[in-house]
Design brief:
It is built from six helices and no strands. It is mainly alpha-helical. It has one domain. The longest helix is centred in the C-terminal third of the chain and has 15 residues. The protein is globular and about 35 Å long.
Amino acid sequence: MYKPPYTVLELKKYYPEKAEALLKDPVHFWRATTGIELIHQEPTLEEQKRIWQNWQEMPEDLKIKSEEKSLELFGLNNFEHYKMVMKEWGDTV
């Protein structure tokens, strides 16, 4: 079941020491303000796999918006970006 990314208020609540920096990042700000998952580099392989699974469970209309944003920010769709990030982790898709 799809679980939206943390909102701005949730980021401030759960990550008070990191929230300001996260919200200056275009990826985290977009996710927090839209509630739409977007594939990006995560700090752990486990979290990388979690957001990919979450993205796959997202409704189709949100996937379309996520794809548009991924192309805008990274020049890759979400799956292409996921494959690239996983290679950096030394893992293959």
